[in-house]
Amino acid sequence: MDTLKIFNSNVVIQRFFYSGNFVNQLKLTALSFSSTCPKKRSISASTAPVGTGGRHFHTAASNHRNTSCFSHMAAPTSDGHKEDVKDDRISRITSAIRVIPDFPKPGILFQDITTLLLDPVAFKDTIDLFVERYKDKDISVVAGVEARGFIFGPPIALAIGAKFVPMRKPNKLPGAVISQEYSLEYGTDKIEMHVGAVQEGERALVIDDLIATGGTLCAAISLLERVGVKVVECACVIELPDLKGRDRLGDKPLFVL
């Protein structure tokens, strides 16, 4: 994947290759460019396969702090001031998330939401936006995907009067479990939940911090639907659109802050 970053009179081409669960940076190349180009505009093109594994990485195009790059997709409101308040919250959330270069290994740019958790106002904004969307949707189950779905799921569940169900990696839950296998770029993985945690006919929200290729969310949806649960929507704080995880979800709605 090549990402074109335009800063003043230079063009910087960042090249990435996909390996396992991460994006690795190959090299940086600077080229001359007309000084009339708009500042800090970025153009990105991705050739990554939909099935590529990995989640917490980003390209240069997805790291801009311009809030117009982030869509909370909240229901339109006739009150312009109320919409402005929502935009302010999105801006605070965006600025509270940092990117860590070269973690967990060189060439990887890691989307870190721990700084969002250190900011009580931005963290509350995040939970509030989700609660406002789901409080009247008759949701009885909030299913959180390991591990960061465990951070956002419980406060949302409490606020809307739903139960929280952890969806865990293999061999983490102590009781009888039902599992769903899903594909990675190399090999497979599983997600599990306790037998009896949900009942046929319940309505569920699946939540995680980030969607990249969408494999984990698809597995969570399949697991819930196998036992007769209606998945109302999936929700994430961050989306990496170049990896086309939304497309992989098919007709299942996705809400992203």
What does this structure look like?
It is built from 6 helices and 13 strands. The chain has 257 residues and is of the alpha/beta class. The protein has a domain of 121 residues: Rossmann fold, CATH 3.40.50.2020. Helix 1 crosses helix 3 and helix 3 crosses helix 4. The radius of gyration is 19 Å and the shape is globular. The N terminus is likely disordered.
Q: And the CATH topology of the domain at 136-256?
A: Rossmann fold
Tell me which oligomeric state these chains represent: single chain
Unreliable segments of 5+ consecutive residues: 1-24, 26-54, 58-83
In the CATH hierarchy, the architecture of the domain at 136-256 is 3-Layer(aba) Sandwich
Distance between the termini: 25 Å
Total beta strand runs? 13
Mean pLDDT: 77
Please estimate the helix content: 10-25%
**Biggest beta sheet attributes:** 5 strands, parallel
Estimated radius of gyration: 19 Å
- Widest sheet, order of strands: 8-7-11-12-13
CATH class term of the domain at 136-256: Alpha Beta
Structural class: alpha/beta
The total count of helices amounts to 6
Query: Which overall shape is indicated by the principal axes computed on the Cα atoms?
Result: globular
Catalytic activity: AMP + diphosphate = 5-phospho-alpha-D-ribose 1-diphosphate + adenine
Pathway: Purine metabolism; AMP biosynthesis via salvage pathway; AMP from adenine: step 1/1
Subunit structure: Homodimer.
GO molecular function: adenine phosphoribosyltransferase activity
Furnish the topology, listing elements before pairings.
Layout lengths: L1 E6 L2 E10 L2 E11 L8 E5 L34 H17 L1 E4 L7 E4 L1 H4 L2 H15 L6 E5 L3 H12 L2 E5 L9 E7 L4 E7 L8 E9 L3 H12 L3 E10 L5 H4 L5 E3 L1
Parallel strand pairs: 7-8, 7-11, 11-12, 12-13
Antiparallel strand pairs: 1-2, 1-4, 2-3, 5-6, 9-10
Helix pairs in contact: 1-3, 3-4
